[in-house]
């Protein structure tokens, strides 16, 4: 079965079989966490979109639920595209984009916003007034999708992604009843900078007294080591006024510098945490797990915060500690000059703290999933003050070599790594430097090593926990 195939993830959300992309409808409802996802139940490739569904009591152990939305109405017949969830009058509401192709080449489309309701959080009924929003304002175009809805005081608000003349935008709406939506104007847009021709999956929220606009732009051009992937996910921070509906923001920053991170969405839980989950893949990439009948997964949940400069930080949710099975290694105060094998695992959490006093050190870091000719390498390059993730020799496709992120300093570096059977998520620099990538190593490439080149690095501590499966 798919469950026994080598790339099958142990503690990440994916479908029982077949294709998934964006996370949708993140919400805590009646004490349980619900996550929906773009799902094609009939193939390991993208197709007419359904909403798959999982829920959890702890954000770690997930239970698969029946499909929540299927594309069978005139207004959504070619796909229930991405959207969000709200709680209203004790019910869970899903607001999503109905997609209809107008031609056989899937070039022309009609996109409208729709609602569906559930009292039990499992079975959903589409609203009879659907679509609730189909009129496209002059500032938008037929690419009109991915509604994210939230409540402020007694009103509902929604952001939608669109484009006009090949420039991405986010539109803002207001409603008293979730049915009738008033257009408030453009919240933010690409004003002919390198910010993409279409802005997908917007999310807008308050954090640390500021307002963050998260977007997934298509069509940004690579600038050095920035915007290297086909599509990006990033954010602005700024000030928003509900009186004037105006948003003033600073520059765009990429959120995760790995190969596979897109279409992120957030929600607020009852502990006050702003939690983010993203699709842990990238469009148009080779996906070796398709041979086994599945593709796509979501990242581990991450708590967001803002640093003093207004940059977003991401931290794995603390609940993930419950995946730890066995601490297999604990190294303290150990000097390395070349390599030190510290473990063997395909699902592990690795925490390593390095101190570098030797100016000769050219590179140091961690290698995982090491085996015959295979390794995935995380290198800190002191001279360039950066962290590099190299998946060139990770195993089967998709290749794509290196991704890198700046570090604020390299004297004392802490890495926290979550390794699953076909993914790696690395957190460094207090959550300012995060890289997420899919890797497809052989099942017997299991080695975990620390390494140093050119001098001596002091490993202040290194710990490895093997992790257990998260499916109920
Ligand atoms: C982003 C996206 C969304 C759309 C969905 C379709 O990855 O293109 O804009 O709603 O995927 O599956």
Automatic annotation (TrEMBL):
Record CDD domains: GH32_FFase (cd08996)
Q: Where is the Glycosyl hydrolase family 32 C-terminal domain?
A: 319-465
- Tell me which residues make up the Glycosyl hydrolase family 32 N-terminal domain: 12-316
Q: In which pathway does it act?
A: Glycan biosynthesis; sucrose metabolism
| Places the protein is found | Cytoplasm
Where does the protein principally reside? cytoplasm
Reading the lineage from the top rank, the first entry is: Bacteria
Q: What this chain does, per the record?
A: Enables the bacterium to metabolize sucrose as a sole carbon source.
Q: Which NCBIfam families match?
A: scrB_fam (TIGR01322)
Its protein name is Sucrose-6-phosphate hydrolase
Species of origin = Metabacillus mangrovi
């Amino acid at each position: 079965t798919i469950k026994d195939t080598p790339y099958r993830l142990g503690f990440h959300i994916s479908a029982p079989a077949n294709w998934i992309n964006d996370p949708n409808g993140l919400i805590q409802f009646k004490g349980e966490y619900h996550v929906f996802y773009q799902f094609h139940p009939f193939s390991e490739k993208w197709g007419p979109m359904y909403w798959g569904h999982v829920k959890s009591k702890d954000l770690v152990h997930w239970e698969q639920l029946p499909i929540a939305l299927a594309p069978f109405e005139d207004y959504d017949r070619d796909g229930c595209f991405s959207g969000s969830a709200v709680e209203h009058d004790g019910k869970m509401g899903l607001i999503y984009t109905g997609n209809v192709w107008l031609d056989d080449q899937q070039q022309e489309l009609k996109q409208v916003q729709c609602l569906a309701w559930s009292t039990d959080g499992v079975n959903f009924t589409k609203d009879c007034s659907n679509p609730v929003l189909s009129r496209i304002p002059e500032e938008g175009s037929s690419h009109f999708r991915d509604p994210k809805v939230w409540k402020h005081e007694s009103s509902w608000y929604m952001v939608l992604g669109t484009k006009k003349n090949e420039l991405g935008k986010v539109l803002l709406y207001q409603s008293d009843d979730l049915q009738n939506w008033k257009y408030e104007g453009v919240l933010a847009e690409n004003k002919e900078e390198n910010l993409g021709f279409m802005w997908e999956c917007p999310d807008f929220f308050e954090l640390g007294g500021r307002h963050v606009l998260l977007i997934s732009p298509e069509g940004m051009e690579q600038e050095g080591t920035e915007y290297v992937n086909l599509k990006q996910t990033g954010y602005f921070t700024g000030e928003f006024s509900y009186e004037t509906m105006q948003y003033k923001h600073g520059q765009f920053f990429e959120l995760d510098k790995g190969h596979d991170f897109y279409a992120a969405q957030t929600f607020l839980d009852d502990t006050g945490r702003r939690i983010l989950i993203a699709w842990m893949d990238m469009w148009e990439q080779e996906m070796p797990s398709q041979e086994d009948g599945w593709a796509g997964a979501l990242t581990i949940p991450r708590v967001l915060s803002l640093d003093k400069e207004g940059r977003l930080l991401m931290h794995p949710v603390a609940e993930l500690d419950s995946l730890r099975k066995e601490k297999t290694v604990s190294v303290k105060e150990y000097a390395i000059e070349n390599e030190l094998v510290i473990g063997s695992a395909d699902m592990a959490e690795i925490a390593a703290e390095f101190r570098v006093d030797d100016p000769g050190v050219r590179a140091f870091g961690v290698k995982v999933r090491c085996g015959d000719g295979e390794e995935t390498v995380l290198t800190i390059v002191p001279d360039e003050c950066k962290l590099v993730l190299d998946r060139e020799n990770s195993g089967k496709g998709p290749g794509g070599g290196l991704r890198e992120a700046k570090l604020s300093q390299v004297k004392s570096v802490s890495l926290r790594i979550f390794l699953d059977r076909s993914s790696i998520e690395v957190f460094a620099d207090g959550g300012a430097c995060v890289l997420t990538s899919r890797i497809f190593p052989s099942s017997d490439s299991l080695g975990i090593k620390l390494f140093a080149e050119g001098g001596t690095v002091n490993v202040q501590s290194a710990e490895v926990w093997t992790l257990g499966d998260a499916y109920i």
